[in-house]
Amino acid sequence: METVEEKNINDFETLETISVDCVIFGYDDNKLKALVRRETVPYNGEIHLEWKLPGNHVRRDETIDATASRILKEQTGLENIYVKQFMVFSNPNRLRLREQDFVWVKPRLRDERVITVGFYSLINVSDVDNSMLIEDAKWENAYEIKELMFDHNEIYDEAFKKLRYDLLHEPLVFELLPEKFTLTQMQKLYEAIFNTTYDKRNFRRKVNKMPYLIPLDEIQSGVSHKPARLYSYDRDIYEKTRTERFDFRM
Amino acid sequence: METVEEKNINDFETLETISVDCVIFGYDDNKLKALVRRETVPYNGEIHLEWKLPGNHVRRDETIDATASRILKEQTGLENIYVKQFMVFSNPNRLRLREQDFVWVKPRLRDERVITVGFYSLINVSDVDNSMLIEDAKWENAYEIKELMFDHNEIYDEAFKKLRYDLLHEPLVFELLPEKFTLTQMQKLYEAIFNTTYDKRNFRRKVNKMPYLIPLDEIQSGVSHKPARLYSYDRDIYEKTRTERFDFRM
DNA sequence: ATAAAAATGTGTTTTTTTTACACTAAGCTC
DNA sequence: GAGCTTAGTGTAAAAAAAACACATTTTTAT
Question: A133, A186, A242, B194: least CB-packed within 10 angstroms?
Answer without folding.
Answer: A242
